[in-house]
Design a protein that fits this description.
Length: about 1000
């Protein structure tokens, strides 16, 4: 029998270890990385990770490690993170002292020992703002990693994440999106063979493993040489060839199986157990009865301390100590630094669990539940103890006790911001309700209360659809006539949830019904709050006159009820309505008043939203530089400008920076971090797509982003999303030549906008995009001689132009720019591109400080000048477009300008280090065509074949083919159709003398 179970050194895995070390070096250089170790159970993931951790510590890295525990969905929140943080709590690390009291208080929700006497307790997990409590905890964890990273690289290693709870998975998604330049390496291990099709980890892995800095390392089984090396290290001598062969056949190269076969005393010279599980059971059955009994209890409890084992086992203290000593010395159980007993490998526990009889299993779990109950009554009532009680009662089959424990555990899960786990526990309580007599007595709450609490926890966890379903079920069980006030409160919450889900019209109707249940003359906070929500819905929908009317009602109700804390949100929305409805000065003052109220009340979330709205309003009316300063002012004033509550303000700063031409700043603001859900994610996705399209390097990426965004806003009533996504989708389809698809997108967006909003800026944006699409369609029809399609495009163009004109009546700069552009597009669509119209459009955008659309207009102006034969003016406009596009980083627009300059042989003054276009020919032909090539081009434009060209111009068909090839090269086009289009657009369709 082998005296050791594992080898003393890492066998094989040279390439895998090198890849992990490369990830560590990247992290140390400020490029955070994610590494995934995947493989079957026993293949050596933990051994490889331990070697990485050893080397990382030798290089001065901080290593935090924790394990997920197999307890099922919704039961033990943050288990691996708690394990990772415990060493810091024990060491009283100086880094903890550098954290803000608020961040320490948040971390103390996971480990109370992290709190200090002067720390303010963390805000309860029942915040009104959805998910804000959990986000604060995540941000505190990120802040901790950032602080640790100042001392050197940090390795966060979480094992067995296939068992990770929902909140841990949510944190990992947050971390992957949020890490920017922190020296952090996150290593996750999981069993690839356990990820069935519906495993909850699959969607997260699909998202995380696609990240640019992520790498997946799959561990294969050992080959013969590696197995021989492993056996030699364990045995202390080279193994016999026949032993290697037999173990390779039986273990199939699984390192753990090979170890256990040797540890079982079976050296390969006799009969070997047919499976790894059989080999493991051989080892367990050789132990004394008391050791086996202790291991069975430990298998049911998974991870227990000595006191719990003693309390639940019924063994005498001395018997238990001896039993555990034998289990540890046999390399079956281990004791960690915290004193917790567990199995050396999860498969050892699984084998024992599978061997338990049903009655044994129930009795063990009942004993453990009762032991945890005693601990809960005597000590700190933490979420993890409460979760273990519920889990063990469930395994024991005691449904009344499980019902009570599940409700209690949900309360504790909310305390630690684990709203997803709380929701799952409450759903389990609802499942038990009809099975347990006197369920309300056991639960301590009514079924309606359970439905409401579960709905609100699902909502906080961003599970909107399930939240709405549960809220609707609760509402169905409330008698509106008997309990109008309660029904009104539930309807108000349901309205908010429906709005978040994108069901805008249903949300408005729900809110109206909630108000109907309360008397109009009632002076109550409840009625005032519903009116505040009505103001918010109207403002978000862009119904500004209605917003002003509803705000007056809400302010009167707030006065009557004395609900002073509601003034700020009403003034915030009223200010937006005023700024967008022709009273910018009054609107700005109202928003400043709202900001003062939020500041005095100590409401950072309200301050962030108000700053964002003030900046947006100023941006809309053309005061963009001032707007950008407002965003900077807000981010400087907020207690934590990186907090989730500041997401919209950061995004607003990015939007304004994009419009002003600072695209690097825009990307930094918008994309770090990308929120997980809700309108913040919609906005981030939309803005990222805008950047991708503007830069033009990856339209496939833009399409993916817009596809996801389109699904998220399919039923929204918010014009900022309908218009923004509609314009971007239309531009994407137009640029790729899918004019029918582009037309459909624009028409759908306009229909939705005209139905729901008075916000003309988005109507103007979408209609102007539509004008460009119809101008393209008209050009295409004219190029191929399709008179019917040409007439259709022109017929469609005119009403779009009228829409843009109607939206520009207030003379605001954005609408003025859209109008000038649409008018210029109309000249292009009519076949008479007007350089003066395009110059006017460029000037309008320059006046609005919008360099990107200005450069686009200059490019079109240059094309119009070429068509008119004014190559000097074309060179000036094309040079301006090229310079601006390069400054901005617009690859596609720079390419367009360079192509025009090359095709038309324009003389453009450029910097010495920039590529120069070919010198213009001495002739006045704009594309360097000879007179004979010009004649051929005219016939190509008319659709003539090479044979027909030869007959018309008295040349051989082969000679005509050579001319066509040269023409295509000079025009920098790929087909005869494109050559015909260039000829039509540049006035080259009249025959010239030979």
């Amino acid at each position: 029998m082998a005296t050791r179970v594992t080898s003393t050194r890492l066998v094989g895995r040279t390439g895998e270890l090198a890849e992990l070390e490369a990830a560590l070096h990247e992290a140390a250089d400020g490029r955070p990385s994610l590494a995934f170790l995947a493989g079957e159970s026993g293949v050596g993931k933990s051994r490889l990770l331990a070697e990485l951790e050893r080397r990382a510590r030798a290089q001065g890295a901080t290593v935090l490690g924790g394990d997920a525990i197999e307890l099922g969905e919704g039961e033990l929140p943050y288990a691996p993170l708690v394990g990772a943080l415990r060493p810091l709590a024990r060491s009283d690390d100086a880094v903890l002292g550098e954290l803000s009291p608020a961040n320490r208080a948040e971390l103390a929700t996971l480990l109370p020992e992290l709190a200090r006497r002067d720390d303010t307790p963390a805000v309860s997990g029942t915040d009104d703002e959805r998910g804000s409590a959990q986000r604060r905890l995540f941000e505190a964890l990120l802040s901790l990693l950032e602080r640790l990273g100042r001392q050197g690289p940090v390795v966060l290693a979480l094992e067995d994440v296939h068992w990770a709870d929902r909140s841990t998975r949510a944190f990992l998604a947050f971390l992957a999106r949020s890490l920017c330049d922190e020296p952090v390496l996150v290593v996750l291990t999981y069993r690839s063979d356990e990820l069935h099709r519906r495993h909850p980890l699959r969607p997260l892995l699909a998202e995380l493993e696609r990240a640019p800095r992520a790498r997946r390392i799959d561990l294969a089984r050992f080959d013969r040489d590696e197995l021989a090396e492993q056996l030699e290290d364990i045995l202390g001598a080279p193994p016999a060839a026949d032993l290697v062969d037999r173990l390779l056949e039986r273990s199939e190269g699984n390192p753990l199986f090979a170890e256990e076969l040797l540890a079982s005393g079976l050296d390969g010279r006799g009969g070997l157990p047919p499976t790894l599980r059989d080999a493991l059971m051989v080892r367990v059955e050789r132990l004394p009865d008391t050791a086996q009994e202790a291991l069975r209890l430990l298998a049911a409890g998974r991870r227990l301390d000595h006191q719990l084992l003693e309390d639940a086992s019924g063994l005498e203290p001395r018997e238990l100590r001896e039993a555990l000593r034998v289990a540890v010395e046999s390399h079956i159980a281990v004791v960690d630094d915290e004193g917790w007993q567990t199995f050396r490998h999860a498969l050892l526990r699984e084998v024992i669990v599978d061997d338990l009889l049903p009655g044994e299993r129930s009795a063990l779990h009942l004993s453990l539940a009762q032991a945890f109950e005693r601990r809960f009554a005597e000590g700190p009532r933490g979420a993890w103890v409460a979760a273990r009680i519920a889990e063990h009662y469930r395994a024991a089959g005691d449904q009344p006790a499980e019902l009570a424990a599940a409700v209690r555990a949900a309360e504790r899960a909310d305390d630690v911001r684990a709203h997803g786990e709380a929701a799952a526990l409450l759903e389990r309580a609802l499942e038990l309700w009809d099975r347990v007599p006197d369920a309300e007595e056991h639960a301590g709450v009514s079924r309606v209360d359970l439905l409401l609490r579960s709905a609100r926890d699902h909502y906080r966890a961003s599970d909107d659809a399930r939240a709405v379903t549960l809220m609707e079920q609760a509402l169905a069980e409330i008698d509106e006539e008997a309990e109008p006030r309660r029904a009104s409160e539930v309807l108000g919450d349901l309205a908010t949830m429906r709005w978040t889900l994108g069901r805008g019209e249903a949300a408005r109707e729900t809110l109206a019904h909630a108000l109907e249940l309360l008397p109009e003359d009632e002076q109550s906070r409840e009625r005032a709050k519903l009116l505040v929500d009505q103001v918010r819905f109207s403002m978000l929908q862009g119904r500004y006159r209605q917003t002003r009317e509803t705000a007056a009602d809400a302010l009167a109700a707030i006065d009557a009820a004395g609900a002073d804390d509601l003034y700020a949100p009403v003034l915030n929305r009223l200010g937006v309505a005023l700024m967008c409805d022709g009273e910018p000065e009054l609107g700005a003052k109202t928003l400043r008043d709202a900001l003062d109220l939020a500041r005095e009340a100590g409401l950072p979330a309200a301050m962030a939203v108000t700053y964002a709205n003030l900046a947006d309003g100023l941006h809309v009316v053309g005061r963009s530089r001032e707007a950008l300063e407002v965003t900077h002012e807000g981010l400087a004033e907020l207690p934590d400008p990186t907090a989730r509550t500041a997401t919209w303000l950061r995004a607003q700063a990015g939007t304004i920076a994009f419009d002003l031409g600072d695209w690097d700043e825009a990307q930094r603001r918008i994309l770090r971090p990308v929120p997980a859900a809700g309108i913040h994610r919609v906005n981030a996705l939309m803005r990222e797509a805008e950047l991708e399209l503007a830069r033009g390097g990856d339209t496939a990426r833009a399409r993916l982003l817009l596809d996801e965004t389109g699904e998220l806003v399919a039923t929204t009533l918010e014009p900022q999303f309908i218009g923004g996504v509609g314009a971007l989708q239309g531009e994407l389809e137009r640029r790729e030549g899918n004019l029918d698809a582009a037309r459909e997108v624009v028409e759908a967006a306009l229909d939705r906008l005209e139905f729901c909003t008075e916000d003309v800026r988005f109507l103007s944006q979408v209609a102007a995009t539509g004008a460009a699409i119809e101008a393209d369609a008209a050009e295409r029809a004219r190029d191929v001689g399709d008179d019917a399609a040409l007439a259709d495009a022109l017929a469609r163009l005119e009403p779009l132009l009228l829409r843009v004109e109607a939206a520009a009546v207030d003379g605001r700069p954005m609408e003025a720019g859209n109008l000038a552009t649409a008018k210029a597009e109309a000249t292009r669509g009519r076949g008479e591109p007007d350089p003066a119209a395009w110059a006017a459009a460029a000037d309008a955008w320059a006046a609005a400080s919008r360099p990107y659309p200005e450069a686009q207009a200059r490019q079109r102006e240059a094309e119009a000048h070429v068509a008119a034969g004014d190559r000097d003016a074309a060179a000036v406009a094309a040079g301006a477009a090229l310079a601006t596009s390069r400054d901005l980083g617009s690859e596609w627009l720079a390419t367009e300008a360079e192509g025009l300059i090359a095709r038309a042989r324009l003389r453009v003054d450029q910097a010495d280090d920039e590529p120069q276009p070919s010198a213009a020919p001495s002739s006045e032909e704009p594309f360097g065509l000879t007179p004979r090539e010009r004649q051929v081009l005219v016939l190509v434009a008319r659709g003539a074949t090479n044979r027909e060209i030869g007959a018309e111009l008295y040349m051989a068909e082969k000679t005509a083919s050579v001319h066509v090839s040269r023409i295509l090269a000079k025009l920098d086009v790929r087909s005869r159709t494109e050559a015909a289009a260039v000829a039509h657009r540049n006035g080259l369709t009249d025959l010239v003398p030979s």
